[in-house]
Amino acid sequence: MKTKTVTLFLVLILVFTFQINIYAQEEVNEIEINEYGGEKLGSIKDFRENSIKGIQKVDVEEYRLVVEGLVENRQEYKYSGLQEKEHIKKLITLNCVTGWSVKALWEGISLTEIFKEVEVKDEANTVIFYSPDGYSTSLPLSFIKENNIILADKVNDVQLPPRQGFPFQLVAEQKYGYKWIRWVNRIELSSDSEYRGYWESRGYSNSANLY
């Protein structure tokens, strides 16, 4: 009986230690990096919360990224399916029109690769992005292809937090922050090059160029 008790006690210690190690590893994985390629990065906490209806909480199991409009093959992607696609990293600074900026390492999926899958029609020249809070914005299709624009699901090597747009934020490099739409859940390929999104329809420049 004493031997069995000692054995059970040792097993419980091993299980407890294993669980602690897993928990510790999860904690390590949630620590964002602060340097990349010799350049200092800003923190996720440096991004200011300026959404139109507050932080959106997205159920990852229910989430679908709809890609439709002027395409041959309309698609609805699950989050898990998108995670299986090739990811690329980009060191990009987000600049807000109000004067603040944050340099971060973004990781995500190339929109160009998604567009290949849906087979964009020849008449499409504009890509419109939508968020569940009613926000929208757009970019020229040619700009997206030329700059290999990505939908990011990670920032500074950690999963995109809800306040930063989980599950996906558009990394609209070379554009002001109002083009960096968060919580993207629908993408429309369009021929409407004059489309105006939420802030653009309120007087902001539709090009949003930094330079």
Please explain how this structure is put together.
By secondary structure, the protein is α+β, with helices and mostly antiparallel strands. It has two domains: 1-30; 35-202, Oxidoreductase, molybdopterin-binding domain (Sulfite Oxidase, Chain A, domain 2), CATH 3.90.420.10. Helix content is 23%, strand content 28%. It is built from four helices and twelve strands; from the N terminus they run αββββαββαββαββββ. The protein has helices at 2-29, 79-83, 111-118, 141-147, and strands spanning 35-36, 39-40, 64-69, 75-78, 87-95, 101-110, 126-130, 136-140, 150-155, 158-159, 169-171, 186-190. The strands form three sheets. A five-stranded mixed beta sheet has the order 4-3-12-7-8. Strands 5, 6, 9, 10 and 11 form a five-stranded antiparallel beta sheet that branches. β5 (87-95) and β6 (101-110) form a beta hairpin. It is globular. The model is unreliable at 2-29 (pLDDT under 50).
Q: Assign the CATH class of the largest domain.
A: Alpha Beta
Distance between the termini: 78 Å
Strands ordered across the widest β-sheet:
4-3-12-7-8
- Taken together, the total number of domains comes to 2
Q: What fold name stands as the CATH topology of the largest domain? A: Sulfite Oxidase, Chain A, domain 2
Annotated CATH architecture of the largest domain: Alpha-Beta Complex
Rg: 21 Å
